[in-house]
């Protein structure tokens, strides 16, 4: 085992006993935390660039120009993730993808004052490339568990906060952002020391053993799960946030981060279906009655609770996609990113989502579809242990090329 794996002997998470208890290889938590920090740094850098360009657009062409600019950035950063994930899987080069993406994010930081549109394209595409590569590493070493994916995606919300606020000039710290991003570029190649994802014995009682799903069922499951991700982004992105609401926005973003990072552990412990579907349904009455509460503090508390419930489903959705596509983890993560773009498209296009009933309706749809997907996935029989069918024909060492 490489130095990047956590051992019980060095104060880790007692990985050896975990392996004996679950039959699954240990999760390389140090690498997961490194990639989580990288996620925060890359998102902060690219959002800083996007925010600075948006401010310049407001000064020169008004708010419409700024909204168009951010819509272009979102399209570049999210829409191509599925296609990029397919290429990363074909090349088996997730470490290279993540490193090049982080380097592009750093380059956009230095380029934006001189070539604004080029910097925007580099920032967006670099962000997408990083997510496809880093997400692939995390999902392929999660071994059927939701927690690592949640720990990886959660800090992206903190990166959005830092990049936006520092970009607006509210906080000093642009030098800290680029320093963190440059450090990530240097550290990411260390992930190449990870061994190939190891096959593990499928267990009927486990949360999500790897399995080969017949392609008609695979298409159906993906068609059920991607709208869940899109609806989560739709619910979180609808509406605008004014400067006076920045404190509330930061609180909601931090709540989303905690929901993603913590809920995967809870779902792995007590069951994906039991801890995801009821919680998503429980958010519906909050969306229906919350806006009618007389107190602003009560409305905000309800909003925080609803955000936590909605965002908590993300780790389970990612892990379910990874189980459906066990040999294509970059594609699995990339499809989730592309679905986020579709969910945020109404906001990017400036559509005013006026009817309040649409939010609980979308949430009910999301809860029903993920319930159907998890029930179908539970019925899919896992394959016997077989390295070639579960993870593809990969060598024992050096499976991740740099």
What's the topology here?
Layout: H1 15-22, H2 29-61, H3 63-78, H4 81-91, H5 94-111, H6 116-140, H7 147-153, H8 155-167, H9 174-187, H10 215-237, H11 246-270, H12 272-289, H13 296-311, H14 314-324, H15 329-348, H16 358-379, H17 387-391
Helix pairs in contact: 2-3, 2-5, 2-6, 2-7, 2-8, 2-9, 3-6, 3-15, 4-6, 4-15, 5-6, 5-9, 6-15, 7-11, 7-14, 8-11, 10-14, 10-15, 10-16, 11-12, 11-13, 12-13, 12-16, 14-15
Structure report:
The protein is 71% helix and 0% strand. The protein contains 17 helices and no strands. The radius of gyration is 21 Å and the shape is globular. The protein is an all-alpha fold and 402 residues long. The chain has one domain (22-391): MFS general substrate transporter like domains (Growth Hormone, Chain: A, Up-down Bundle), CATH 1.20.1250. The model is unreliable at 1-22, 200-211, 238-244 and 382-402 (pLDDT under 50). The longest helix has 33 residues, at 29-61. The two termini are 19 Å apart.
Percent of residues in helices: over 70%
Give the biggest sheet. none
The parts where pLDDT drops under 50 for at least 5 residues are 1-22, 200-211, 238-244, 382-402
| Total number of helices | 17
Number of strands: 0
Principal-axes shape call: globular
Percentage of residues in DSSP E strands: under 5%
Q: What's the average pLDDT?
A: 81
The CATH architecture comes to Up-down Bundle
CATH class: Mainly Alpha
What is the gyration radius calculated from CA atoms? Answer: 21 Å
Sheet/helix structural class: mainly alpha
Query: Termini distance?
Result: 19 Å
Name the CATH superfamily assignment: MFS general substrate transporter like domains
């Amino acid at each position: 085992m490489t130095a990047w794996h956590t051992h019980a002997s060095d104060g880790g998470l007692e990985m050896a006993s975990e392996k004996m208890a679950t039959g699954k290889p240990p999760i390389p938590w140090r690498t997961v935390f490194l990639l989580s920090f990288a996620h925060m740094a890359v998102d902060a850098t690219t959002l800083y660039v996007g925010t600075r360009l948006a401010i310049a657009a407001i000064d020169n062409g008004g708010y419409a120009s700024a909204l168009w600019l951010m819509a272009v950035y979102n399209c570049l950063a999210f829409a191509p993730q599925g296609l990029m994930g397919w290429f990363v899987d074909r090349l088996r080069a997730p470490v290279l993808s993540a490193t090049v993406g982080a380097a592009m994010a750093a380059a956009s930081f230095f380029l934006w004052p001189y070539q604004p549109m080029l910097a925007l394209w580099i920032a967006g595409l670099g962000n997408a490339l990083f997510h496809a590569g880093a997400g692939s590493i995390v999902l392929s070493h999660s071994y059927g568990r939701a927690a690592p994916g949640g720990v990886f995606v959660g800090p992206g919300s903190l990166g959005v906060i830092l990049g936006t606020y520092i970009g607006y000039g509210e906080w000093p710290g642009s030098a800290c952002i680029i320093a963190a991003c440059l450090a990530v570029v240097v550290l990411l190649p260390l992930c190449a020391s990870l061994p190939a994802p190891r096959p593990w014995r499928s267990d009927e009682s486990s949360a999500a053993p790897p399995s080969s799903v017949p392609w008609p069922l695979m298409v159906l499951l993906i068609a059920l799960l991607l709208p869940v991700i899109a609806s989560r982004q739709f619910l979180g992105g609808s509406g605008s946030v004014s400067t006076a609401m920045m404190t509330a926005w930061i609180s909601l973003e931090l709540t989303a981060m905690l929901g993603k990072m913590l809920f995967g552990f809870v779902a792995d412990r007590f069951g994906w279906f039991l801890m995801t579907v009821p919680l998503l349904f429980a958010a519906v009455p909050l969306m229906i009655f919350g806006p009618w509460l007389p107190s602003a503090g009560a409305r905000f508390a309800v909003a925080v609770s609803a955000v936590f419930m909605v965002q908590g489903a993300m780790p389970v959705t990612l892990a379910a996609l990874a189980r459906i596509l066990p040999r294509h983890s970059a594609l699995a993560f990339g499809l989730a990113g592309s679905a986020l773009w579709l969910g945020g498209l109404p906001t990017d296009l400036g559509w005013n989502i006026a009817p309040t009933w649409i939010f609980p309706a979308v949430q009910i749809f999301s809860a029903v579809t993920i319930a159907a997907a998890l029930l179908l996935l539970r019925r899919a029989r896992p394959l016997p242990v077989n390295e070639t069918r579960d993870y593809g024909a990969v060598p024992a060492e050096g499976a991740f090329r740099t």
